[in-house]
Design goal:
By secondary structure, this protein is of the alpha+beta class. The chain has one domain. The protein has two helices and two strands, in the order E-H-E-H.
Length: 68
């Protein structure tokens, strides 16, 4: 991730695997068109919020290490 990377988290509630895959594909296309660095995190109701909090914590730690 770059110096000014934005992180956007989507939680899909009651979506099928096909719908989630379609969202991921659409976000990948959007990412390429944006003039800034962005990462999308897509989860569904099967992923515990604890896992998301842990992931964000680890991403922030990595960001701080790269910033030094």
């Amino acid at each position: 991730m770059g110096k000014n990377t934005r992180l956007v988290h989507f939680t899909v509630v009651d979506g099928t695997d096909t719908e989630i895959s379609a969202l991921g594909a659409a976000l990948s296309k959007l990412k390429m068109k944006l003039p800034y660095d962005i990462e999308f995190l897509v989860t569904n109701d099967k992923i515990e919020s604890h896992s998301v909090k842990y992931l964000i914590k680890e991403l922030y730690k990595l960001y701080k290490e790269k910033k030094k």
